[in-house]
Amino acid sequence: MAEKAKKVKKTENAIQRYFRETTGELRKVSWPTWPEARRLTALVLVVMVVVGIFLSGMDYLASQLLALVLGL
């Protein structure tokens, strides 16, 4: 009976395994330096503004074209 108790292996909790594997993967990540992160963030913001201006211009042109076609 005592041998059975020794053979029973406690299974790892799924949540514990998830966090252990996640921290292991995060250690492998090549993190950018602060200057590189700031530069890339600025680039993303500039691209967002440019795309926003482009899309609002296309929306304005489409609404003007639709108003012209429908005679509003």
Q: Gist?
A:
This protein has helices spanning 2-7, 14-28, 34-70.
Helix content: over 70%
Main structural class: mainly alpha
Q: Could you tell me the strand content as a percent range? A: under 5%
Low-confidence stretches: none
Discrete helix count:
3
Tell me how many strands there are: 0
Give the biggest sheet: none
Number of separate structural domains: 1
Mean pLDDT: 89
Order of helices and strands: HHH
Helices, strands, pairings?
Elements: H1 2-7, H2 14-28, H3 34-70
Describe the fold and architecture.
This protein is mainly α and 72 residues long. It has one domain. Helix content is 81%, strand content 0%. It contains 3 helices and no strands. The protein has helices at residues 2-7, 14-28, 34-70. The model has no long low-confidence stretch (mean pLDDT 89).
Attribute tags:
about 70 residues, elongated
